[in-house]
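Researcher: Quick one. two chains, 624 residues in total.
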Amino acid sequence: MKTTNAAATLASVVFLKIQEYARRPVQEQTRLRAQLEAVLAVTLADLPPENRIVLDTADGTAVAILADPEEALRLAERALPAITAGLPLCIGINHGTVQMASGRENGMIGDGIAVAASVAEFASPSRVLISRSFRDALSDITPGVEGAFSPAGTFTDGGLRTHELFFPDRQAAGRRRRRLIALGAAAVIGLVGAGITVRASTGGHQKIFDATMAKLGLSAKERQIYLRGLREKLKF
Amino acid sequence: MAKKKPAQLGRYKIIGELGRGAMGVVYKGEDPALDRTVALKTIILSEDAAGRSEYHARFFQEAKAAGRLSHPQIITVYDFGEEGEVAYMAMEFLKGTELRTRMKEGTISVPEAVHIAEQVAEGLGYAHEHGVVHRDIKPSNIMLLQHDQVKIMDFGIARMRASDHTKTSTGLVLGTPKYMSPEQVAGSPVDHRSDIFSLGVVLYEMLTHTKLFSGEDTPQIFHNVVNFQPPAPSRVNPEVPPMLDFVVERALKKDPAVRYQDAFELASDLHSALAELVVREAAASEKKGRQIDTTKTMKLDAEALKTALPIPAAGAIGSDTRLPVSRTFDCSDAIGRLTDPGLRDRASLTRAPRPVGFLRSMARDPGRRLLFVAVVAAALVGGAIALV
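Model:
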């Protein structure tokens, strides 16, 4: 097999696999293929033709995206609702090397495609699975976006190759936000508390208390009354 | 193999020789009792006792198996017997052309190919129902008769399905390499789905006018049978409708579990494809008829047609996993970017993702930026409390 002289390039590959395709009767296979082509025609409409290469696979289609990896994710998310129309699509996305092959007819090869096919093997029709390399490619473009994906697990394919996979999780972004807020609050409390502790340990707590009360303009008698009240409250 | 033509076999008078196979000679004979012409398939029984009993058993087993089958698409076995060192089987004498000959001529149209395959599938379905697996479906075992009728010949290595779970008793894997199924090549248990694969190969070759699994030697052919994923027939011959791609693809599945499970199912799909083809042909001929009325007579350039013929399907060892570019969507612009990239593409398409550093993270990730600001502010306040 000959390949073109161009260096291997990196692309995001969306692998759309029709579930249990080989086991279906030919009439149904024909219908599902036609349906998949219709879905692709709609989902690819927003993508400039110079940014995508559509490939035929034995049980579906693969689309190599030569643009922002987010386009690949958007394409997958737009294709996913086709499940409700009776097209059981298993979608896997990977970011890896691809290369045009020349020979009997045009074709594309590359690890990017092979891994995307493996990822799609593990996907169920209700959710998109992405590889770690695709997640890294996304976070390279938009740092922090990796927080929008949850781990789906580690899977081993037929070639005994292990893949760490993730899935887009709408609640993951909210959880990350809450986690950052909690972390921020803890840091603020800790740092301010540390400042107070240092101050107390160097000057004595009575001195700090007196200085604070003085700043508030309370007399010695008023301070005694305030302290008594405070103790009563604590007892209660 | 017989060196001299016998004058008679049992009650049959030998008229001439029809051909020679792997196990014996096929003669043209005459049955004087019924005054009919028959084909007599013979096998020389081995000299040594063990070999003789094995050959004897196999020959009579296949004769009995074939004799049970009575179907328009299967050659009829009339009788079988033994004459000295020769065992023979008297069969229907067919006047027709072997499919192999027609394929060499390259004159089989797509509808005709589908019609032939459909009839073979019907015959195989019947044989499988009766527990007989052919095991050697290939163009030379398919005879084309008058009125487009097809007959499957030579259940020569057919074995009783129930009594055969592995290789033949001699340890040989029987069959014709180019038409054997992957499980046959591997010496795994073979069932009726193996015949479906072989018929798939024959159909592919009829549709594309190419050899599907070729190779310099048998191991290379075997390698291709097990590993090579052929391109869809419509990619090799644009006249093939897409539905036939699906049918051929399913018949040629390497894994028998996802292949057609029943030859009748294959026949049914071929029937549907044929119906589609007939409609298409009718529409095309109508269009052509209209064109002829308004255009001049054309002379077809035979040389130009030859160059347009597809090149062989399996030229090299095919552990080829490339995916073909879709013909439905125009991808020429994007392919151009890959094959002939500009400076900008060369830089952007080969750039690997980088780990996100602290500064980029602060600049692009609002969540982390906010956390950083809060921590710095808290540290300043804490420091002020401690020191001021």
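The first helix of chain A runs from residue 26 to 43.
Researcher: Thanks, that's what I needed.
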